[in-house]
Design goal:
It comes from Pichia sorbitophila (strain ATCC MYA-4447 / BCRC 22081 / CBS 7064 / NBRC 10061 / NRRL Y-12695) (Hybrid yeast). By secondary structure, the chain is an alpha/beta fold. The chain is built from 22 helices and ten strands. It has four domains: 204 residues, Rossmann fold (3-Layer(aba) Sandwich); 82 residues, no CATH class; 112 residues, no CATH class; 76 residues, no CATH class. The radius of gyration is 28 Å and the shape is elongated.
Length: 519
């Protein structure tokens, strides 16, 4: 990366580093419908340097578009809305390439499927015919191209991610765990610990023993006194903590022993593999994941990790070491020990990756040293989830109907109302107005197959009235907010960093509350 780019993207590089920025610059985002919220989404992606974007919209600019979109003006009236929007957005960042396609979505879906293969992410905003949405999801689901559906109606917004699966290695989990191998030190670490006789040290050196060594030696003493058992239960770990404190000569003066006592539970908490690792192993062994030439690299790594664990009975060491009270010499020595062990494990893991690549019909040239390093470093915080193609499920319908006596605003009420609002317009070719309340109620019942004998919840009807009264999809504040939320989620998917939405988000702009749902 050039110096100019490092300076230009300095703040975001601190969030996702060069690897994330490279992934971002290699992404091509497709926006379906040049709406106000769509322009906000693209603006938030263009400024940090998304590689390319394409706007698909066959409509012409109207006065309503101008009133709701900051990136359109009177000179654009009657012109192609996709071309007009792309022209304005292209001025935001010269590093980004933008394109306009003034063709109807239905026509593109009838064309060659390869048209969609160039995109990393598809974003659909507001109104799209249900049969077009179904056709697009059918086309992209097996291609593993994620689709974001974002809608705004009045002061409400919804966002849904359709993706067959989402896997993230660099989750940046705030509860960062340091794998210190206190329970089972490797030979070099054990030898270094054995070389340090803490009982013969003077007071100054005793107060600077790294807490890793303190914990290793305390555990050795514990095991001698407890038949070789490790303190796994909470009560036993509390006893172990007291034993650590008792080995200090003056606990008030020796910060290293205080650090050791505080780190006791964290140091021992991963005596077993994280549950997600075992779940991933089961999944990769099942017929659910086809280990062929089209398998995502994430599953190549999981398979390689399983073989690594079977061979060495441990996970690769991440190698990171927390700060601690210590002499410079002792800390540097420990850093070298952990670093060398991590590099050795990484080499062994790489060998397993190559073996799996060859067995699955992939080339050894597909080995990416940076991604292997990242995988080993973040092994305890992998994220994997299976998505859904459904807009809703039966349990969600049951939930809203149970609220029959509730006057409180529910985010589920909002979600189903917004969904129905756009389906109404799709079926009747116009959005509902205040005089269409009864027609809207009947449409809602029919859309979700609700019995006419059971009254709709009053809270739901309240949301109906709110949405119909405003009948707008381009309020600036809601478009800006939902554009910000959606672009954040797209950035997570594009950089393959941080934990993304799973998989429905609903925003209530009237009460300034939001909620997430898993469908």
């Amino acid at each position: 990366m050039s110096f100019d780019k490092k300076l230009k993207y300095d703040r975001q590089l601190r969030l996702w580093a060069n690897t994330g920025q490279t992934s971002l610059e290699g992404s091509h985002i497709c926006l379906v419908n040049a709406t106000a919220v769509g322009s906000e989404i693209l603006k938030n992606l263009i400024l940090p340097g998304i590689g390319e974007y394409t706007i698909i919209d066959d409509k012409r600019v109207t006065e309503e578009d101008i009133f709701g979109n900051f990136f359109l003006d009177e000179d654009d009236l009657g012109n192609s809305i996709s071309s007009s929007l792309a022209k304005q957005l292209n001025e935001l960042n010269t590093d980004v390439k933008g394109y306009a396609v003034s063709t109807e979505l239905s026509e593109l879906l009838r064309g060659p499927a390869e048209f969609w293969d160039k995109f990393n992410t598809i974003v659909i905003t507001n109104q799209v015919a249900s049969h077009d949405l179904d056709a697009l999801l059918d086309l992209l689901w097996e291609r593993r191209i994620p689709v974001f559906l974002v809608r705004t109606a009045g002061f409400y917004g919804t966002l849904q991610l359709f993706a067959k699966e989402v896997n993230v290695v660099e989750t940046h989990d705030p509860a960062m765990f340091h794998d210190l191998r206190i329970i089972n030190p490797w030979n070099e670490l054990q030898e270094y610990s054995d070389s340090m006789d803490i009982d013969t040290l003077d007071d100054e050196m005793h107060a600077h023993i790294p807490y890793v060594i303190i914990l290793i030696k305390t555990l050795e003493k514990w095991k001698k006194e407890n038949g070789g058992k490790i303190p796994l239960e909470y009560s036993k770990r509390s006893e172990f903590k007291r034993l650590v404190e008792s080995m200090s000569r003056n606990l008030e003066m020796e910060d290293n022993f205080k650090e050791a006592a505080k780190a006791t539970h964290r140091a021992l908490q991963f005596s077993q593999f994280p549950p997600l690792i075992n779940d991933l192993f089961q999944k990769v062994d099942s017929q659910e994941i086809s280990m062929d030439s089209n398998v995502p690299i994430f599953w190549i790594y999981v398979k390689a990790l399983k073989q690594f664990v079977e061979k060495y009975n441990e996970l690769p060491l991440p190698g990171s070491l927390p700060d601690m009270t210590s002499t410079s010499f002792a800390y540097v020595t420990l850093t070298k020990l952990y670093g060398e062990k991590a590099r050795d494990d990484e080499r062994k893991f790489k060998d397993e990756v190559i073996h799996v690549l060859k067995a699955s019909g992939n080339s050894e040239a597909d080995v990416n040293h940076n991604s292997i390093h990242s995988f080993c470093k973040n092994i305890h915080f992998l994220y994997a989830t299976t998505g859904s193609r459904k807009l809703y499920n039966n349990s969600m319908i049951s939930a809203i109907m149970k609220e029959s006596n509730s006057l409180e605003c529910s985010t589920l009420f909002i979600y189903f109302t917004v969904m129905c609002y756009f389906s109404f317009a799709d079926s009747l070719q116009s959005f509902p107005n205040p005089g269409d309340l009864e027609k809207f109620k009947a449409f809602f019942r029919n859309m979700f197959s609700l019995p006419s004998s059971k009254p709709l919840p009053e809270g739901l009807i309240k949301i109906f009235k709110e949405v119909i009264a405003h009948s707008s999809q381009s309020y600036h504040n809601i478009s800006s907010f939902m554009g910000g939320v959606t672009s954040q989620e797209i950035l997570k998917v594009s950089t393959a960093q941080y934990t993304p939405l799973d998989n429905l988000y609903v925003f209530d702009g009237v009460h300034s509350i939001s909620e997430k749902w898993k469908i």
